Amino acid sequence: MATEAQVIPSDWGGGRLPYRVGHRKLGMWLFIMSDSLTFSALLIAYAYARASNVWPTPFKFYPSIIFSSVMTLVLLSSSLTMVMAVSASARAQKSTARKWILATALLGVTFIVLHMIEWRHLITEGLTPFKLPAEWAEKWPGASPLFGATFFGITGMHMFHVATGCIYLLIVSGRVNKLKHEDVEISGLYWHFVDLVWMFVFPMIYLLSIDMTK
Amino acid sequence: MTEHAMETEEHFAGSNKLFFSIWVWLLLLTGFEVFLGYIQLPVVYMLVILMGASIIKAALIVAYFMHLRFERLPLVLTIVPALVICICLMLLVFFPDSFRSRALRSPAPATTPIEKP
């Protein structure tokens, strides 16, 4: 049996942070875990619906795939600006950190604008959550109308996260002088998670739905 | 600096050069994925390769951009295995069943003619 002297200096003996992260950062990691499962469930439900139905593959390489690739580039670049913000914050360069955070938020807004253009294009074609455009229904007979539900559901959920992230980053940039470095790092964790989710949404929703017909 | 602050701030690591090289790798992997879409491989190959590339990209983001590589092992072990096991369990339950549902919806034609009584 361990004596008191052996227990107290250990990481798990109390009075220390065993993970070497603050409770807020640990909380963000736990939130990211739960949100990962939410997106996993959505993507697995999409894969289930797709594998068990005739599924339309409507996206032309140009413009749809090129457009969504640009969106991916914007989101990846926003992750780089965010990591620069965290790096500047770690060196206590608050003003530089603020500029990088604002650049990240701006790239996030750009992503949302591009995504709204994409949505508008599909809605104009006649896609709704529970109905395919007549042209698609003719091209892929018996195709599941769930395409719209999964597309708008998953990309909408992701876009909601991006929008929330932009608001979060704007608040952090406004208060960066008062906040600790760890708070900036926590906002970075959230933003990188949003980027990470898109790394699965982009291939599953777009790249696996390229129109093979000439 | 308080002991708490020292404990939480000591683990930041990674240079801007490293982060930039990770970003370039992420772009290259994305370019590779888009190229696969351009040459139009069969969907099964696409699914396997794209998911492989996405997992690598996710690992790079989590390890370097989210700094998990620089965190302590207990934190990594708390977060990663539970998540991976949960996702694998969801796949185990739902993915095989999706093919059964499809077979029920549109059964394959019989290979031998059914004998008439």
Structural write-up:
The complex is a heterodimer of chains A (214) and B (117). Chain A is built from 7 helices and no strands. Chain A is mostly helical. The longest helix of chain A is centred in the middle third of the chain and has 32 residues, at 94-125. Chain B is built from 4 helices and no strands. In chain B, helix 2 packs antiparallel against helix 3 (43-65). Chain B is flat, with a radius of gyration of 23 Å. Chain B starts with a helix and ends in a 12-residue tail after the last helix. Classes of the chains: A mainly alpha (214), B mainly alpha (117). Chains A and B meet through helix 2, helix 3 and helix 7 of A and helix 1, helix 2, helix 3 and helix 4 of B.
Give the tags:
heterodimer, A: 214 residues, mainly alpha, B: 117 residues, flat
Helix content of chain A: over 70%
The total count of helices of chain A amounts to 7
Mean pLDDT of chain A: 92
Oligomeric assembly:
heterodimer
Q: Gist?
A:
Chain A is mainly alpha-helical and 214 residues long. In chain A, 73% of the residues lie in helices and 0% in strands. Chain B has helices spanning 3-9, 16-39, 43-65, 73-105.
Topology overview:
The complex is a heterodimer of chains A (214) and B (117).
Chain A: H1 4-7, H2 23-51, H3 61-90, H4 94-125, H5 134-139, H6 146-174, H7 181-206
Chain B: H1 3-9, H2 16-39, H3 43-65, H4 73-105
